[in-house]
Amino acid sequence: MVSDRLLHSLLALFAALAAGLLLLVVGFIAQEALGLLQQLGVGAFLFHGEWQPYAGRFGLLPMLLTSLLLMLGAVAIATPLAVVGAACINFYLGRHSAILARRLVEIAAGIPSVVYGLWGLTLLVPLLAAIKQPGASLLAGMMVLALMILPTIVVVVDAGLRALPTHYRENAEALAIRRSGFVFAIALPAVRGSVITGATLAAARAIGETMVVMMVTGNLVQLPGSLFDPVRALTANIALEMAYAMDEHRSALYVSSLFLLLFAVALVLTNQLLLGWRGRHG
Amino acid sequence: MVEAATIAPPLGARSTLGIDTLVWGVGLALLALFGLLLAEMFAAGLPVLSLEFITGEASDAGRSGGISAVLVSTLWVVALAVGIALPLALGTALYISEYLGRGSTLYRLIHGSLDVLSAVPSVVFGLFGNAVFCELLGLGYSLAAGALTLVCMIVPVMVKASVDGLTAVPTELRAAGSALALSKPALIGHIVLPAALPGVASGVLLGVARALAETAALLFTSGYVLRMPDSPLDSGRTLSIHIYDLAMNVAGGDRFAYGSATVLVILLLMINGAIALVSSYAHRRTTDS
Amino acid sequence: MDRRTFLAGSCLGLLAFTWECGAEESVKLLATGSSTVAPLVAELARRFEQSHPTIRIDVQTGGSSRGVADARRGVVDFGMVSRALKTNESDLYVTTLANDGVSVIVHADNPVQALSRADLIALYRGEIDDWGRLGGKVGEPPVVVTKAAGRSTLELFASYLEMPPEELKAAIVIGDNQQGIKTVAGNPNAVGYVSIGAALQAMAAGTPIKVLPMNGIPATLEAVADGSFPISRPLNVVTRQPPNGALAQFLDFALAQAQSDIVVAMSFVPRHGQ
Fold it and tell me: Closest-CA residue in chain C for A229?
């Protein structure tokens, strides 16, 4: 029989390993990036507007902002729609149609992102090009990403709504509150935590998405002047150039992943803050 | 409850109607949109499916023949990744739920680092895996390097699901175990783990789903080779990469790209079905006891 | 503790599942480089492996310069390069597998029938804001598509225009050939450049694009074959040492007349002519 102490240390080792994975990832990315970072200084990456890796210019600012804008735009489009969609499934559709709708959303969440990208490239981009050229743009990226992350948010919010105690609804009915009143004044505010969690999950997916963004945003390195301008995201830049990059250029791509890691930390902290704030004020 | 009701003034009939219409409109539009997307994908993909497509060997850069090598590569990568991640995740989950207090600093540290890990973009894992597993460990472009990279990506979701399963074990069960004077390892082995099995299983399935859908991280680690792999040290392309390559690199590859995407979605559907089965089984068991 | 032992220790658990299985006496050749050459080598290798079961050839993509660098460092058995070697690359041994051309494509509905070199320079300098100036639809702005940095297709096209690659201005930057073709097929105002082979294959599959002649010479495989097409390039394999052993066997096999059907099927030009 395994002794308690042995099991304890064994499990602690596993936990340390799992938690250590993050350190390992950060450590190695940093190691590949650090040489160039020290050589050029952080400013060369942050405050320089030009990305010309073959001329030794590695300004990441336009791509950093693009990644942020894509994420914010996608989350801003998807979250309200997803929340209303989840409410519709829970409180408007009949029992059987709701089950069907949930299956549909689950499958949609599983569609490979490349398929969303293909759809964006062959249908959405030409449509946007008809409004304003060139079609491949910040807006196209936001829209395809929004579509891609929508099912994720619906699934999380839906799970939250389903977990609401049934007496909420019974009490509301007893008080003769209308369905829409119940949904918007009681049910949805009660699942704010799920909405925040779903939106954060979706935000992480949006900022990390690579292939889809590369296929629909036009990949031009520039600060977007409007929603219709083509832009390049940090992730797309890595996918476009990694296979071709050597020496300094390769290190610069590792520097850009370091920034992506910072985004991940920031997202998790924001989520904690929002949830904590909700805990105190909600 | 009552408080919430008093905050919301009774809505007039007209505005209620407006809100109801809005909810119906948005909900149905979304469902129709996803329905259309899926229908379009299946319409393009289903005609490609055949026994020959599943079991055949690819030829002409993937434009004809089948995807057997792709399926075997996918199986290798997913099985290896889950096989390595499972003990790691389960051990971590047991440690968190059985030995650590919820509010302890260590708990928050482990939890926080796993949260961040799950928010890291997959392309970053790709760069990490390329530098560490392919180059430093000398695995080169290989299924093993891809699997090890995926381990880092799926451990967080597997830990989370397992912890959920473990904390859902009814306290009466634990109390019964303690009353029998079972040692902690015996309690875990005989009572807690079996009861938490559904949660662990759904964690595994979530990990499989994430591994199946991954493209960017595998692009730089397991590579493109379109051949039946002999061992995990061979390079091989998974379904997601095959879809990407057919759509972006191969002229006239769209038809087979949609075919492969359909296979992937069917696989994911089967996994979702398995998750639903497992959790309904768990639900039955906890309500029975 | 150096980082290698540190890492080896920390990854021991993870590695328990991987093993070396070099029991059989097989030879594995590894190649990296140009994504244009890669599918050709992969198809040649597939046929080669059927008659040479002890030799395996693994093909990974990554661009011509990666192919040159990897071959030079000796981390691969051969590199794939979709351009002629530069003067500072003369230390490498070259085998040309086939030839390819690069041509300009526009949407099938674009009335423009030809673009001169001067037109293209103006387009890629961003000086044209109306297709009407080039004989196209008046009032429609051209949407210029270019390849991402590092691709030899870009370098080749830029040298035809006698412009430095980084000075080509475009509205859309693409990575892979098919992305360029799909972009042009989806936008009646787009103009881009791709491998002739890729363009002809896409047109054969019904994609609504049009290949334009260059300097008045129609973009056909025949024009590439007889050397009259202005932008053509060899599809090369490079090695650090003169090819020997399994690699020499493979290259001999790849160059044999019997394999030219594979080259033709990929819409490239075999060295033997057709």
Answer: C171
CATH of the domain spanning C101-225, picked from 1.10.10.10, 2.40.50.100, 3.30.565.10, 3.40.190.10: 3.40.190.10
Beta bridge partners of C96: C236
Cross-chain residue pair B140–C59, CB shorter than 8 Å: no
In this complex, do B88 and A172 lie within 8 Å of one another by their Cβ atoms? no
Our count of domains for chain A comes to: 2
Domain boundaries, chain C: 24-99+235-270, 101-225
Q: Strands, DSSP E only, in B171-283?
A: none
Residue in C with minimal Cα distance to A134: C143
Mutation for C interface: B57, B249, B256, most C CBs within 10 A: B249
Whole-prediction pTM: 0.88
φ/ψ of A238, rounded to 5, equals -60, -45
Handedness of CA C174, C177, C180, C183 (dihedral sign): negative
- From first to last of the 282 residues of chain A, give the pLDDT tens digit: 568 889 999 999 999 999 999 999 999 999 999 999 999 988 888 887 788 888 888 999 999 999 999 999 999 999 999 999 999 999 999 999 999 999 899 888 878 888 899 899 989 999 999 998 899 999 999 999 999 999 999 999 999 999 888 888 888 888 888 888 888 888 999 999 999 999 999 999 999 999 999 999 999 999 989 999 999 999 999 999 988 888 899 999 999 999 999 999 999 999 989 888 765 554
A46 inside domain: no
Architecture of domain B68-288: Orthogonal Bundle (1.10)
Query: B218-253 burial, b for 16+ CB within 10 Å, e for fewer?
Result: bbbbbbbbbbebeebbbbbbbbbbbbbbbbbbbbbb
What is the residue range of A150's domain? 51-281
Q: Which residues of C touch B147 (CB under 8 A)?
A: 17
